[in-house]
Amino acid sequence: MSLISVFRRGLLGLGTAALIAAPAMAQQGQPIRIGAVLSVTGPASFLGDPEDKTLRLYVNRINAAGGVNGRPLQLIVYDDGGDANRARTFATRLVEDDRVVAMVGGTTTGTTMAMRPVFEDARIPFISLAGGIEIIEPVAPFTFKTPHTDRMACEKIFADIRARGLTRVGMISGTDGFGQSMRGQCQRVAGPAGITIVADEQYGPRDSDMTPQLTRIRNTAGVEAIVNAGFGQGPAIVTRGYAQLGIRLPLYQSHGVASAQFIELATPAAAEGVRLPAAALLVAEQLPENDPQRRILIDYKTTFEREFNQPVSTFGGHAYDGLMILVEAMRRANSTDGTRLRDAIRATRGFVGTGGVVNMSATDHMGLDLSAFKMVEIRGGAFRLIGN
Hints:
The protein is α/β, with parallel strands linked by helices and about 400 residues long. About 45% of the residues lie in helices and about 15% in strands. It is built from 14 helices and 14 strands. Helix 6 crosses helix 7 and helix 9 packs across helix 10. The radius of gyration is 20 Å and the shape is globular.
């Protein structure tokens, strides 16, 4: 086991008492300033809130364990409320006023894409926590991401639909950045996956009733399954409408709803049987004992839930991965120079995180393949592993 792995496991087990009595060495040297612009409030708060909590929790633990190369981390967080314009303003503030050396944040695809040019122009590494594939494709030199992409979600969903002997899909998508990105990716990969999209409906961020769109999908000849590309409250409204209309077709959601809060919003009864691709964190205890992620997942889950008394979500896990990838890159580079940090981040190999085993390169700024996704189904108000 590497020294870095030992360090991370130590952080996961570090208790609150250790934070109060932080070693003096954690206070040596000038602080390393890292930024985070998150959607802590607003329609994407169920993503941004656990991200915010995770970053604060683990920055404290890193500092209590001695900091990074003898220097404490200073986390500077701004809440964009899900607004892309505010996100860009805060990104500019982080660069020009706060003088951060790196950024871990960007809750949504829309806010990430608004901030990306700011950090690229400043040559400051930016690790996004959002799902859209356009964040990293084509590759931008200083931009990375930790979550699985929307293209991967489409491929995983379509493979499961085909395994059920089905081929004809009705899509319903949000008009937000993530919803439109995933809709486009599903349209691109449908043909190669042997899927035909026979209905295509959309809904806005303020829509409170999707039954008209769902009715049109249900009434489309030959529809065999429904796929919802979206995140936030929209998919919960879709799921409730699906149940209200008594639709019996298989319903798939994206990894943008991979949290217990989605089940609560949709109601367990309506969500029963819904399938989605998700990081293994949701089903950590259901993994085999020899799974390389199991220990990291259970440790993170236990630490987060004990600290905040709320269920863990994959979104907090994305923040954990982003922070730890950055910290390990800082340790390897022994520098906070933007270019040297960028090079160290994209040299990440064999990093076992909550999202999977990460192997980045100059041409892959995410480092996950489709095996990092698990297909899960909601049964009895909980997520159940149904395949790899």
